[in-house]
Design brief:
With 404 residues, the chain is of the alpha/beta class. It has 14 helices and 15 strands. It is globular. The chain binds pyridoxal-5'-phosphate.
Length: 404
Amino acid sequence: MVANLNTQQFVELEEKYGAHNYRPLDVVIERGEGVWVHDVDGNRYLDCLSAYSAVNQGHIHPAILSALQEQAAKLTLTSRAFRNDQLPLLYKELSEITGYGMSLPMNSGAEAVETAIKLARKWAYRVKGVPRYQAEIITAAGNFHGRTISIVTFSTEPLYRDDFGPFTPGFVTVPYGDAGAIEKAITPNTAAVMLEPIQGEGGVIVPPDGYLARVAEICKRNAVLFIADEIQTGLGRTGKLFACQHEGVRPDITVIGKALSGGFYPVSAILADEALLGLFQPGEHGSTFGGNPLGAAVARAALKVLVDEKLSERADELGTYFMEQLAEMPSPHVKEVRGKGLLIGVELKPEAGGARRFCEGLQGRGILAKETHDHVIRFAPPLVIDRETIDWALPHIREVLNMP
Ligand SMILES: *Cc1c(COP(=O)(O)O)cnc(C)c1O
């Protein structure tokens, strides 16, 4: 069916028939290529959100597209009741690229976070010797780890949490960026500390230098697992394969998702060594679609693009340039520019009237960005962006940041 509807008509359909659990910009996208997307009215935009870093490789990357098409024509789903000829290769390639001995694939990021929590709890009972059902997991204020009941239990954002209890016991919250607070919160029952290396949804919050290294050391000294949620920061976004590598940290469990799919098809995973991931016994955990051959083929291609096109290095170089340019930009509204690689947040002053109107201003000039936490504009284009495109965007951003 060719729907000859305009933006307004699509928006009306969506508002009438769909749940209102998002408040998107009123741009209806029908096509994407690389860093660009096109709307139904024929306008072109630079995508500065990358689907929350799920399209690091750019929209419709040709190599990932052909992997998807080839695999879709051969075999898509077996369930894990049988083996398939893509998953073992994904396991091996993930291990070679990340340096972890094993992985466990899921679909959404939230499912992978749940998987990490289950593994940490099992480890606490079976290895550390925590009394049954007493395991505690320490998380940080301002976190975002997904939307399941257990995960919103430890959200500190009332909007994400307050109407959805009763909640899951076993979580402790400490301030983000304060390693001492973690050390104080550790008890004999602590199974794990789970953190984002940079809080993306929290407003691109970069912790103090040395924080991750200190947390990793505290965890090690106290026989506590360190779980890094790299669903948004991982796979090149911050200028290294994983953001924890900026501080030479190798967490016990790393959670990935988003760009593992290249934006094509949901794939997530947890990464760990055999001493940990080997704890799961047959039947203890699973997912009908997790590890399916279509997702595995897509993830293999998405990883190959990251490596072949040196996207981490690109993010490092171009992110440094983009952030410097933004930091030097005169504007009466900007309070701070921060980030790492191509994960950049521009925090506006409280009196600027919120980030939303600036995002709408950017939209009017062909740039799609999304406000996060009211006062922060996130700039996180696909990592395949080039300097010329950044140079094209800068004057537009400058004008918008100087709106009255
Ligand atoms: C997006 C995100 C998640 C959740 O991923 P979903 O695929 O939406 O479930 C978890 N953690 C972080 C850090 C994220 O950015």
